Amino acid sequence: MNRSSLGILAVVPFSLYSLTAVAQDWDHLPDGRVIIEIKNKKLAFPSVGFDVDHVRFDEDSLQDRATLREVIASPNKAREIFRRRRNVGVSIWVAPNESRFLNQFDRAGIQNLYLWFNVGEDQQLCRLTTEEFNHVGAAQRRKPQSGSSPWEVSRIKDTLFYSYVGPELKLAWPGLKDISCNSLSYCGVNICLTPELSFSYGFGSKAIAQDRWVELSRQVDAILSNIVGESSKDKGGGRDFRNHGSINDQRHQDRLQQSAVVSSLRPCLSGDYRYDGHRGGGGAIDIDIAIIGR
Fold first, then answer.
1. N- to C-terminal Cα distance for the chain?
2. What is the CB neighbour count within 10 angstroms for residue 247?
3. Handedness of CA 7, 9, 14, 18 (dihedral sign)
4. At CA 242, angle to CA 123 and CA 154, rounded to 5?
5. Radius of gyration of the CA atoms of the chain, in A
6. Widest distance between CA atoms in the chain
7. 174 CB contacts (<8 Å, ≥6 apart)?
8. How many whole angstroms separate alpha carbon 47 and alpha carbon 261?
């Protein structure tokens, strides 16, 4: 048998595997939503509709990026990418459209909102912002409340920290009541849901004024609960995650002292966005680090 024949035989097993491999489909909920499992974390999304092209995965990578539509269509490929990556980012743009967001929610008041999930071991950014907000909250509790606004505000350098102090606001995820804004009026929230899962959202305070923040918090709370379900809540789910993984080493303390929480959030003129230091496409903001949260 010559080398040419051996080469042909060597290729046959891979070719047969490619032809016979059967994609293992994603699980679905009774209401038709698809369950995308990433590193043992389950996120529920619509399997059809307008938003399947506006939920995006791993926008920082030209090689790995994909829309929800593509992830649904190629489950084996998506699972391999999720397995290989240390962290997986999921970004969602509430794009203008007459349909309901995620087939369930009224888009009024939340259009052009950006939401992010980050899945993986490295959730230090949300833990850093948690430390920062805890520091601000402790200082606020030492002084009397002033004015009639339901938001108590503190400033550290160019960052404004808003904590809700109004009438009881029942949220499944209390950390959503802590909002921070940078000097360019870009605001946001970042909360640790579990040690391996964080959630963020961002908005311009000129587009969504402060008198709408309470209702915005309710809307985002409902959206977040719809996507992550009960599984994350059972593990702490942002209810009281403030003491998890306290950060004491000098490098992180230096970052806290620099108030790097939202100071580098800035509008982007290119029409792209940056999440967690990585460039992506399809958005309208530029984000270098985590937003804020509890």
1. 68
2. 14
3. positive
4. 100
5. 21
6. 90
7. 238, 239, 294
8. 35
Return the structure tokens found at 113: 């909102």
Give the alpha-carbon dihedral of 213, 124, 53, 265, to 10 degrees.
50
Paired residues of 78 in beta bridges:
none
> What is the residue-level pLDDT of the chain in tens, covering all 294 positions?
554 444 433 333 322 323 334 458 999 999 999 999 999 999 999 999 999 999 999 998 899 999 999 999 999 999 999 999 999 999 999 999 999 999 999 998 898 899 999 999 878 777 777 777 666 665 555 555 556 789 988 888 888 989 898 999 999 999 999 898 998 999 999 999 998 999 999 999 888 999 999 999 999 999 999 999 855 553 333 433 223 232 233 443 343 333 333 333 333 222 333 333 333 333 333 333 233 333
